[in-house]
Design goal:
Layout lengths: L5 H8 L6 H18 L5 H17 L9 H9 L6 H4 L2 H6 L9 H21 L6 H17 L3 H12 L13 H16 L7 H13 L2
Helix pairs in contact: 1-10, 2-4, 2-7, 7-8, 8-9, 8-10, 10-11
Length: 214
């Protein structure tokens, strides 16, 4: 399976054991979709692979999962709660990155749906409900993650788009604090610049959020 980044790996460790398999399967699905576009593959090849994932996710609602570890985990732990057809919406957000032109503000909006969906579905799997604040936080996180993988000419534009969505919010409820940790790190990156994932400073920021919800 595609590994999770250090930030999500640590956040996942704070997910209650009964919810962890489902949240991990969802997050690894997102990582697998991102891996499709890694390495500068030809856009057409990337499009074909993303469409395969979309179709495979939609089929999980009515068919057994194919012999693919991520899809099997999603079928077992996620689809009973979040339908495969809903998960298939990730494909459209990732497809934005196949654009060969510099991303526009509308492209940022479309791509930010990745984080909105990820936080929405994660909240459901964590046994809570999503809100507009939670989904805005997800959009900010996704855009900061995009900046981490963007070339220098594009970073400022991506950061500006993320900054618009990274508004402070009320104290995060305990069940959703694994998501709040990721949002806290996104806001930290916007304020101070991209930090090294898994660094002691980031771990301390996540622990602070774990106990305070801010």
């Amino acid at each position: 399976m595609t590994p999770l980044d250090p930030d999500r790996t640590l956040a996942l460790s704070y997910v209650p054991a009964k919810h962890r398999p489902a949240v991990e399967a969802l997050w690894r699905l997102d990582a697998a979709l991102g891996a499709v576009l890694a390495g500068g593959r030809e856009p057409l090849i990337g499009q074909i692979k993303l469409v395969w994932w979309r179709d495979a996710l939609e089929k999980l609602d009515r068919e057994r999962a194919p012999a693919e570890p991520v899809l099997r985990a999603v079928a077992e732990h996620v689809v009973p709660i979040v339908p495969g057809a809903a998960l298939a919406e990730f494909e459209q957000a990732w497809t934005v990155l196949l654009n060969q032109e510099p991303l526009s503000s509308s492209d940022f909006d479309d791509y930010a749906a990745r984080g909105r969906l990820l936080f929405r579905f994660s909240a459901t799997l964590l046994g809570d409900v999503s809100t507009a604040e939670v989904e805005d936080a997800g959009e900010a996180w996704a855009l900061v993650d995009l900046a981490r993988h963007s070339g220098e000419p594009d970073k400022m534009a991506v950061f500006n788009a993320a900054r618009e969505r990274a508004r402070p919010r009320n104290r995060w409820p305990v069940p959703l604090r694994p998501l709040g940790m990721l949002h806290a790190l996104a806001r930290r990156d916007i304020e101070y610049g991209l930090g090294t994932q898994g660094s002691p400073g980031r771990m301390l920021r996540m622990l602070r959020h774990r106990f305070t919800g801010r």
